[in-house]
Amino acid sequence: MGNTILTGRSNAIAPIISAEDARTHITEEEYRRIRQAFQRFKNGCIDYDEFCYHVLGGAQIPEDKRRLLFSFFSHGAETISFDNLLSSLVGLCRVEEVQSRFIEEYHEFASWGLSPPKLTIPLNDSYISFYEVMSYVTHLSVKEVIELEKVFATISDRAVCKLNVEKWKQALGGCFPDTYAERLFAVFDENRDCQIDFRELVCTLSALCRGPHPGRISQLARIWDVDCDKLLSDEELSNMYADLGVPVEHQTVTKSANGKAALVDFGIWAQENERYIAKYYSMALQIGHICLGLRPESKKMELQVVNEFESRASELPLSEWNIVASGWHSEYRTLLEAERTPNPIDNSGIKGTREDSWTSRLLQVACISAESARLKPDLLPMDYIRVPVPLWRAWLRWHGCALTVDSQFTRKYLDGEFFEDNKPSLELYPLEILFLGHDRKKSHDGTETTPRSLTPWACAQVSRSMTVDELLALCKTELRLGDGDARLWQVVKENEEGNVLLDDGNQNLHQLYTALGKTKKVNKMKLLLEVRERGTGVWPEELRASLSGKQITAASTLSSSNAQLSGRPGAVGLVNYGNFCYRNAGIQCLARVSPLTQYLLEDEHLDELKKANTKRRDVETTIEYAKLLREMWAAKKKNIAPNDFNDAIRMNSDMFECSEQHDCQEFVAFLLDQLHTSMYEANKTLHPPPPAIDPKKEEENHEIEETDEEKAERSWTEYEKQNESLVTQLFTGQLRSRLVCRTCQSSSSVFEPFTSLSLPIGFEDVDLYQVIVVHRDGRIPRRYGFRLSRDSKIGHLREVVAASSGISMSHITIQCMSSKGTLMSRSPNHRSSNLRDELPLSSFPSGARLYALELPESTGEDEWRVAMHRKLQYNHEPHILGSTAGFIVSRFGLPLIVGLDEHVTGKKLYEDVMYQMHRFMEHSVNSFSSRAHDPCEDDASGFPFTLCLVDQNYEWCGQCPALRFCRGCPIRPDDNKVFIPANSPIAVDWFPIALYLRYNHSEEQACEDDPSVAETWSRHFAPSSLEHCIEKFSCPETLDAAIQCDRCEKKTTRDKVMTIWKLPKYLIIHLKRFEFLREQGRMGKCKRTVNFPLKHFDPAPFVDKPDGNTYECIALANHYGQLSCGHFIAYAKSNEDKWLLLNDCSVREVSEEEVDKQGAYLLFYERKDVK
Q: What residue stretches are annotated with the DUSP domain (predicted)?
């Protein structure tokens, strides 16, 4: 055995046996598993953290015990070698002498004496893999099931690991009739949930493509079995005869099942009349083998399936084809006919070279498209064949490829507009695009003083039919640009002004390439991929234009529809060389106010400002704004860089001196204030105001009681005298602020001017909650929707759920499950399984699911438990070091409530769980499966699961000490009374075979939506309206402090009511999308759409003194993204009454329907006076 090394508590005990001796105590299978597990550690050893997670399985044992065990395994070293791991594991788990010595030295582990933790359990005894189960119940081998799973992963929806209708159609590649494809999907969709899971796929493929031939043919009858009863009625038989074109004399299917035809009846008939069913059966084989991934069982079968598929698909109008060398294809058929294994796909005969390509070693840039290979130039039709994409993928799976790279040639079939001869054809030679990027190196001080150079970034081979938006999306995805601002430019050396901005996302690459005037054989183009700087918000190309003084050319302005914009006053873009999109959008909107713009364009008014005082900040800002307007209205350039104006803003404003993102509304307010101040001061200098009224006389006038109309008129007159300017005349309106006594309803009014009306749009103090109510009778759960105050608590939620579901509030418990399947833990000092009523709903984690579970009748506070479904990687026995991460616990499914009355037995608990699960338990064997009954599937001989007592996380035992490594003490399903300790949940541990074959996950996830779900969702996220926003603006607000009321002769509570008294000529409406969220401690953005009219807006219902005029929208500023990293653009009307989209330097004409209202932030309305 080896000698014992005596040590004290300060040192580690050395194993009594060596690694060689340890091997004699375990089997070769166990040794292989331990060796395989150890090889997964990268450094060839195990450190302390890895030991706790992988060897101890993450068990929550005390830190000092973990350290002690690690010291024992490592012999006091910092890491554990394989020999030390093996000898320590085997010694502790298999050798009594080592166990005794260890327990004698460390009394804390005395509980190991009678039953120490297991080592690793032989695979066949502890766990049956899913592949083995599926092989056991079908005609497929384990290897075939594994291969099918790999294919299934590529064609299914990865989010749910299922094949929906859309993914099914993609897998079939459009190679089969739509009606047939839909019906065959229904055949695979055994449980009729409109999705095919992997179990359904494997079982149906086995039935259709393997096993006895009569059985395969019989399954085709299910194509016409609409009611899924596995019988064909007269109507279903009639449809079948019509689809197959069977003459009356051969319509002889026997009806052996009470006047209906069984599947076997159809099978017998089909064998006698095979010519009618041959096409449908052939297509089923083609789909199963070529599209869904089942390898043909013989070379003869492969040749038959491929020939029939090619023959039928060759003339299909598919949009994509794969190009394959004719030489390999001929050889492939020859070898299959000779019953020999085909060689890997070899396209070397049609493959071109990389010389002069963007992927050459000279450039060394990555290709971001799926393919980068070139075909040989001037290929002849005899050199290649075209095959559908599903067949190409099948060949790759079956035979591989001789070329490790550049072996795939997927080509699109395009309309004639993309070719010189105007004939539809395959695009054999796609466009090769080189993406350039800006050099990211900055100067030492971080400033930008010179334009950045362009360097190769990436390349792609894409179709001419791809649009600019699609190409940009490809770049963002493959280059991991995220949601950051990026755009494309066409690199054109011949353009004096430089590159062309591709601002029309619907333009395709063929149009761009044709504009270059190159021959089709070149097939190469350079594009610049420009990324906006995150920190400064700078567009490098706009910075280049600003520094060089050159124009920026947008592709949209070169089109015939937008070419006429050139030369139009005001239809000029503004270069954004900093984080100035908020300024550009504000300027473009404000410039549409014709009286103000016209005023600043006239020399005499500008001269008046200069005469007044040119040294004041407001005057300098006004002069630079006027210069900018003159340059925009001169329309000599397509876009201009407002350098002088931005410098003036930086010098004259503390708020906007930096290049950070700011609020467009704040900038417009600042600019209007600057314009107003300069005009007012100039007017006051040139035209001194009349002498001020004697304050004493004015005070006497105020003592006379006035009506609100008189107050408003006096307040407005005084304001005009003190703020006389064009800005006041155009933009200033009047609000009435009333304080209303809540006792006697008396009120007092104050009138205030405004230039921008800020309206609330949607930050309601409510949250949306959806609760799934689970009844104990196993019926389909029902989901309810509620809009509750953000300070609501569990008790209120239980109350509204009880009112909606009809379940007594005393028989409802609320349970919160995280996105990872973990139930929200209760307070450690609270012994009940129920969440406390005083717990706030805001404490629930984001993305959590809420369940309202019905409790058993006549149960008290502690007479029920929450049970969760659990899957252990290895059942029955705990172990140390699972070679396949065996200690991982998976929780799934709906939580259940188990009643615990004083006489409850183990058998009653099991029966209660089975009763609640009967809806999603498979009780019958599939007719097309070859499997036999397994004992775990028969209720008469047992249950398909074990109930275990666990801890609050449903991972470890709730009773045993942590050092026992117990996953849960099982409850016996007998007639003996059971004792369930307080605060001890129950886990439903499933046997592997039963879980795979009997547990219907689709049925378990089924849920009916109550009408309240749609109603509350609509109310919570439905678009608002401008009228609703104005109504919210005028809602009474109760003041906290009491105010003295003259009528009541005491302090009373007052309501403050803001209403619109008078509107200006030009109304600026600010939709308050940003508010501070106190609960989250941050600024939040409300993305709710606000519907508003572009024409004929009548504000009369919301104005105290309406004048009968309507308003028309002349401009709006939109915001996208968040406050700190968003982007502003503008829509504005031109002088010709046409809408323009002004996105920094880009300007293009759009229709009224194209004006995006969803992101509206600032609205500029012009009053249309009634004549």
A: 297-414
